Each structure stands twice: as structure tokens, then as C-alpha cells.
TrEMBL record:
Protein's recorded name: sn-glycerol-3-phosphate transport system permease protein UgpE
InterPro entries given in the database record: MetI-like, MetI-like_sf
Annotated organism of origin: Rhizobium fabae
Assembly and interaction partners: The complex is composed of two ATP-binding proteins (UgpC), two transmembrane proteins (UgpA and UgpE) and a solute-binding protein (UgpB).
Function: Part of the ABC transporter complex UgpBAEC involved in sn-glycerol-3-phosphate (G3P) import. Probably responsible for the translocation of the substrate across the membrane.
UniProt family annotation: Belongs to the binding-protein-dependent transport system permease family.
Ranges that cross the membrane: 20-42, 86-105, 117-144, 150-173, 194-215, 259-279
Amino acid sequence: MERLNHNLAPKPASERLGTLAFILTACVFAVFFVMPIVWSFANSLKPAAAALADPAALFSKAFSLENYRRLEHVGAGWYVYARNSVLIAAGTVALTVLVSVPAGYGFSKFRFPGQSLLFVLIMATMMIPFQSILTPLFLILKVFHLQNSLLGLVLIYVTFQLPFSVFMMRNAFDAVPKALIEAARIDGASQATILCRIMLPIALPGVATVAMFAFLNSWNEFLAALIFLSDQNKFTLPIMLVNVSSGIYGIIDWGALQAGIAVTMVPCILLFLLLQRYYVRGLTAGAVK
């Protein structure tokens, strides 16, 4: 009753003012983040003439899907580039999760010689600039005949995604009490059973966070795709956007460019909306024991 009376009691003026200031500040930041997305979608629905005449205008009197139809004639067509991006992102997510989950579990729940040193070395690879090792990566792909292939690009993305993913999964498994593992061992469960049927469901927010980061990084990555892919039919959506923005004779097709940006953004927005709950829980996994 005391707690209920405390909640129903009128709040001090200073507390109400602070809450109001927080809400107003959050609304201002939300507008700054949302407006570019709204502007891109609105411009993608403009007729070509309106988009070229005034690219900065938010809305137009007429709406058209002409910009999206023009994307079909950019290179091999936007659907080919979208398919390549989906295949690369799906492969990156699958391999990243498949490797980082058992690796994070091993670093979290097992003790072996050189464990700390090995983990530090894995984390140290995050400090290496990607641009500085482009030439060695290209030579490695050439040795294995994986240059200009989607599989080679997937392996590159997984390599650079793994340090962060292993770190996230180790933190996620650290938050799981060891008593659960000990109880499962007493019941005769194998390590594979413990990992798949006990630990993995509990650490699912961490897995979702790893999968989301792997998807977003591989979906939006541009430089590696530009360097390691030379076949136009294997290009990804970010490379398509560069071709659209270059235009004919240097003239930017603003309508088609915004349509391409909209096509690229939709999967990222939908994925974040679906997994945002797990994303927040996954980032804080292991923070409190």
C-alpha cells in the first residue's frame, strides 16, 4: 500500500520538468533520425521530372513508381543485385553464428592453456584496418580460386565479423549460471546436448545480436564488394547505388537513386524492428552476473 500511495502521489515540479525535457529531447533526436528515411522514401515516389527539378523537396503533388521501374534497367537489374546481397548476407550470418556460438561457449565455460592469450589475439584483429590488408586478401582468394565469387566475399565478411561475434557470445554465455551445466552433466547430457538444448535457448538474445550485426555489415558493405567482384552479374546493392549515382554523363538520377536507397533500407529496418528486443538484451548480456 505504501508503494501504491507513493506511485499515486503527485510528483514534484522539478521531476515533471525533467521528464518533459527528456521527452522533448528524445522527440528532437527521433526527428533527426527519421527525417532522412522519410525524405528518401518520399523522393523515391516522385516522378522523374519532379525529382530532377527539385531533389531537396520533401513531397510532390504527383506520385509514381517510375523510379523503381528504372532500377530494372540499371546494369543487370536491381533484383539481380538484391539476390546477390541476400545470398551474401545469409551466408555471412549462417557461418558467423555457426562458428561464434561454439567458440564463445568454449571461451566462457572451458579452461585450457593459453586461453586468455588466444582470446586477446582474436580481439586484437579488430584493430587491424580492413583497407591495409586488401592485397593479401586478394592473393589468398586467388590461390583458392575464390576471386570474383560470392563465396569468397562471404568468407571475407565472416573473417572480419568473427572477433566481435565471439566476444558477444562469450559474454552471453558468461551470464548463464554454471549450475545449469553441472545439473545437465549429472543427468548424463553430452556437451553438444548442453550447448544446443540448454545454453543456446538461454543465450538466444546474444545470437540474435550477432546475426543482426553480421547481416547489417554484410548487407551494407561496399569496399570489399567493389574490389573483389568484377562480374556485373555478381554485384551487390551498394555497388548498384554507385552506378545509379554516377548517371549518364555525370548527371545524377535522383529519383532512381532514392528508389535504390529505399530498396536497400527496407530489409534493415524490418530486421531491426523484428529483433530490437533481443538486440538490446544481447548487448547487455554478461554485464551483470
